[in-house]
Amino acid sequence: MYSQISELKNLIDDKLTPLLLPKCYILDAPCYENVGDVLIYEGEKEFFACHNISVVGVYSYNTFDFDTPINEDTFIAINGGGNYGDLYIEHLDFLIRLLQSYPSIRIIVFPQTIYFKDRIKSDAILKNLSRYPNLYICARDARSFQLLKDYLPERQIFLLPDMAFYIGSIRTSCHSAGNTLFIKRVDAESSSDNSYDESRFNRISDWPSFQHSFTSSSFMAKVLNNLYQKIRFKPLRQLINRLWNLYFPIHCKMMIREGILFISPYSHIHTTRLHGAILAILLGKEDIVIYDNSYGKNYTFYQTWLKDFPNVRLLSNHN
């Protein structure tokens, strides 16, 4: 297992190191209560630290100021994940606005799953992205990579694993009690497949920050995001953004801690969340079972990167 993680990290190094510049902004950062996206961000931070890249700013799609001057010795790193497509269109809208605002600046989209329900919208957006030669996009699975190949030159696209793997193995003092946890997502990506027997699990839950209205780790994030959505007065919104930027490092530490404390007590991890499986791998769990999400994201990621992990199995209705 440790050798497989090292191989994935080495692949990231081999493909992305030639693109790096001395400084970067990390944009579209996860200023929301998703443990998985924060794990991705932490992996990217580790990658930049290993390559002596100076991170000069970290902002979400809400907190970034498009009047920010960016020099050509600085690149923009877009946080990876599974949010490129028409399920979460605000992330692609943000990328397109960045491309229009900074056409001469190198922009690297870290590994993303790309999925569109609407083929017409997909065609229009991807054709638009092909107009920008300073854009580099990393696909997180073979299906997303094939989609990009139809629109962008090969020099601008890469097939790479999720950046959370760059964190490497995580040591924890928490003892596994032998029980089974089922991480069951409850959002737009939840699957209609209910063929699994829930009676065999000791606990069934999504990430605690999603499952419960407020947790200690998500309270401030929910407050800041709710205020931002409700307030339209620009100076107050700018104040909320500044508070978010100050709070963000604390937010990340609390989200990661929540994920580790959630998974660590269990020996057997069954999950419909991709990062439930990835965090379980990093924690060294020896029995991990992945179920697909609503549109095949987990299936395609498993087939691309995880099928050689001896401790990981896929249960899927795919032929």
Helix content: 40-55%
Low-confidence runs of at least 5 consecutive residues: none
Number of E-state strands: 12
Number of helical segments with 4 or more residues: 10
Profile the largest sheet.
7 strands, parallel
Overall 3D shape: globular
Spell out the helices and strands N to C. Answer: HEHEEEHEHEHEEEHHHEHEHE
Strand content: 15-25%
Mean pLDDT: 92
Task: Assign the structural class, choosing from mainly alpha, mainly beta, alpha/beta, alpha+beta, or little secondary structure.
Answer: alpha/beta
N-to-C span: 27 Å
CA-atom Rg in angstroms: 19 Å
Question: Briefly, what is this?
Answer:
This protein has about 325 residues and is an alpha/beta fold.
Would you mind describing this structure in some detail?
The chain contains 10 helices and 12 strands. Strand 1 (23-27), helix 2 and strand 2 (54-59) form a beta-alpha-beta unit. Helix 2 crosses helix 8 and helix 2 crosses helix 9 (274-282). The chain is globular and about 55 Å long. It is an alpha/beta fold and 319 residues long. The strands form 2 sheets. Strands 1, 2, 3, 4, 5, 6 and 7 form a 7-stranded parallel β-sheet that branches. A 5-stranded parallel β-sheet has the order 9-8-10-11-12, with helices on one face. The two termini are 27 Å apart.
